[in-house]
């Protein structure tokens, strides 16, 4: 039953939401009642996940009963059209009021909710008109109702434990679900973002996993930069092995089931190395990931895995917007991206680990990394090895940054830490198919982890 939440009244409109407080990967039902029948209204949703504002402006026509039901009504114009029950969340885009033109939607503090404000206006307003009316301060006289919906990334009762290299040997944040446990263990890593972001690990904890958001550069005790044009960088696989050991030694972790690993983009080859050499790793999820060492040396127990010989393309200008335009894999040249050695030539024979389950997720409109190529290559290697347990997911229209459900789509955003400067990278994708892919992929990732981390999730 919908809970009524009314913040303002005019013509007695009411905003009803199934959950004013909800986990950010859960859908909610929203209905507006008490409107003038057959009249067009404007819905404006907005949120500030960090310092930048994101917003959606969309038009709906009330039905003959004066109702707009987002689960059934069609949006007629705006950030999206058609029936999109969660459109007011995923279709938000950076506000023109931001100083940063290309921000990334990322909730950096998972201990507080993402506050999404929804306002109803009694006239039809386009996104562009909305900005003008905001400047002219004429919006309030048209506002008939508003409410705030809290979207949480960390479930109540979840333990959040900060880890440091100095004290724990690794840097990151561990999330332990409430309850007795023991819980299946998962390590999450991002790509070329310095430090780590916690929202995936905290959401996984809400699904019953002990999840470690692991940093491997850009944090105290770790290398400062992801990539330097003049300096050589070496990653030690022992660091990631220590993370696995720390996790499995935790009293609330189901150690006999081993560890799952989730990687994306640049961290893909780290995931492959962990699956190859660390026996406790039992399943690996790769999202738009590279399959070989890139830019850095990887070492382990006296072995060195050198990167392919990457070269700056001639049009790369690290301090200008032209460097931006197609992402790292377009302004770095490497024949390795287009050709693959045979299985007998690979140093990391991940496909020989028949006790590791693999999931490779490829966005087919990825403009940062040739993800489809890497997915095809991975599938071929696993097929040749007659591997018994792997899944390849391909999503047409989706871009590089596949996030948990209802997070907004980015065609491009500024990345800090790459080549020592801020860089604007192009991620690709189209909003609607991209966001639908996020919903589908997230559900399948969680089920994949449950299926392959042996014991049942205990809440």
UniProtKB/TrEMBL annotation:
Keywords: Acyltransferase, Transferase. It holds the Pfam family Bile_Hydr_Trans. PANTHER family: ACYL-COENZYME A THIOESTERASE 1-LIKE, ACYL-COENZYME A THIOESTERASE-RELATED. It comes from the Eukaryota. Residues 25-163 form the Acyl-CoA thioester hydrolase/bile acid-CoA amino acid N-acetyltransferase domain. This is Bile acid-CoA:amino acid N-acyltransferase. GO terms for biological process: acyl-CoA metabolic process; fatty acid metabolic process. GO terms for molecular function: acyltransferase activity; fatty acyl-CoA hydrolase activity. The active site is at 265 (charge relay system), 366 (charge relay system), 400 (charge relay system). Residues 236-453 form the BAAT/Acyl-CoA thioester hydrolase C-terminal domain. Belongs to the C/M/P thioester hydrolase family.
């Amino acid at each position: 039953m919908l809970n009524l939440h009314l913040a303002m009244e005019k013509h007695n409109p009411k905003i009803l939401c199934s959950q004013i407080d909800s986990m950010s990967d859960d859908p909610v039902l929203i209905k507006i009642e008490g409107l003038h029948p057959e009249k067009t209204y404007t819905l404006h949703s907005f949120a500030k996940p960090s310092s930048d504002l994101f917003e959606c402006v969309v038009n709906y026509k009330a039905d003959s009963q004066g109702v707009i039901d987002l689960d059934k009504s069609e949006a007629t114009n705006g950030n999206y059209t058609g029936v999109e029950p969660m459109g007011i969340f995923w279709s938000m885009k950076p506000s023109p009021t931001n100083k940063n033109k290309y921000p990334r939607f990322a909730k950096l503090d998972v201990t507080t909710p993402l506050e999404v404000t929804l306002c109803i206006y009694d006239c039809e307003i386009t996104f562009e008109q909305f900005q003008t009316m905001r400047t002219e301060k004429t919006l309030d006289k048209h506002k008939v109702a508003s409410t705030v919906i809290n979207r949480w990334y960390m479930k109540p009762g979840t333990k959040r434990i900060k880890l440091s290299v100095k004290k724990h040997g690794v840097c990151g944040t561990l999330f332990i679900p409430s309850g007795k446990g023991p819980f299946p263990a998962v390590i999450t890593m991002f790509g070329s973002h310095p430090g780590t972001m916690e929202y995936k690990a905290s959401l996984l904890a809400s699904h019953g996993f002990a999840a470690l958001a692991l940093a491997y550069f850009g944090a105290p005790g770790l290398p400062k930069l992801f990539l330097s044009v003049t300096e050589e960088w070496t990653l030690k696989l022992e660091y990631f092995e220590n993370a696995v050991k720390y996790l499995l030694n935790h009293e609330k972790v189901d150690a006999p089931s081993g560890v799952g690993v989730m990687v994306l983009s640049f961290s893909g080859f780290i995931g492959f190395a962990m699956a190859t050499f660390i026996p406790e790793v039992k399943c690996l999820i790769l999202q738009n990931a590279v399959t070989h060492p890139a830019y850095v040396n990887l070492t382990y127990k006296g072995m060195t895995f050198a990167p392919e010989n990457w070269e700056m393309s001639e049009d790369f200008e690290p301090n200008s917007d032209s460097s931006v335009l197609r992402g790292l894999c377009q302004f770095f040249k490497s024949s390795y991206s287009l050709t693959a050695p045979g299985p007998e030539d690979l140093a990391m024979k991940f496909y020989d680990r028949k006790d590791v389950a693999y999931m490779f997720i490829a966005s087919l409109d990825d403009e940062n990394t040739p993800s489809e190529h890497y997915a095809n290559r991975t599938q071929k290697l696993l097929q040749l090895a007659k591997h018994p347990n792997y899944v390849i997911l391909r999503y047409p229209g989706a871009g590089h940054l596949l996030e948990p459900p209802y997070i907004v789509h980015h065609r491009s955003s500024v990345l800090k830490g790459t080549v020592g400067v801020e860089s604007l990278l192009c991620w690709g994708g189209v909003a609607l198919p991209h966001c639908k892919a996020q919903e589908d992929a997230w559900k399948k990732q969680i089920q994949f982890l449950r299926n392959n981390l042996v014991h049942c999730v205990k809440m």
